Amino acid sequence: MQRTITExxxxxxxxxxxxxxxxxxxxxxxxLEKASYAPxxxxxxxxAKIVTTPAEKDWLYEKVIATYxxxxxxxxxxxxxxxTTKMTRLLKEAPATILFARELIPENPRLDSxxxxxxxxxxxxxxxxxxxxxxxxxxxxxxxxxxxELSEELGFPANYQLIANYRLGYADPTLSTPKAKRSPVKQxxxxxx
Length: 193
Hints:
- The protein has about 190 residues and is α+β, with helices and mostly antiparallel strands.
- Helices cover about 45% and strands about 15% of the residues.
- The protein is built from 7 helices and 4 strands, in the order H-H-E-H-H-E-H-E-H-E-H.
- The chain has helices spanning about 5-10, 25-35, 55-70, 75-90, 110-130, 150-155, 185-190, and strands at about 45-50, 95-105, 135-140, 160-170.
- The protein has a 4-stranded antiparallel beta sheet with strand order 1-2-4-3.
- The chain is globular, with a radius of gyration of 18 Å.
- The termini are far apart.
């Protein structure tokens, strides 16, 4: 069944749960290619790393836990349990994870801001395209995001910043989808004069 853009925008939901079913690398590349038609100024300010294999998941998990330890977020047995459980669920148990980075352009604040906005538009496009394919995602800014040392360990250039991790999997049809609640448009939008 073909879904409309309006339906995708209104009905797509973030989900930390999905079927335990692989998402093909080829499909992820196709979605990213379509998502890349997000608007940007001057140049495409984004890069992505795709995590689908058990070896990649284990490697990423170890790097993230080491980052949490380095940042002092894991400092005792309780915090270790909290973060290892959370990252196991988010990274190791995810059918796929996409790590998104944006270009840093400190010499031009306007373009630097545009790079964030363009990359966010890319990720939103990706979310809508994933929904169209029966996939669900969880777009997160976990504490390891924006850690420059980790970003470079992941293979992003030094002038790029990791800004999002995205958990991806096939929607579980047995789970109900909650309806979104939004404020009436006239509460937050008005004519200028």
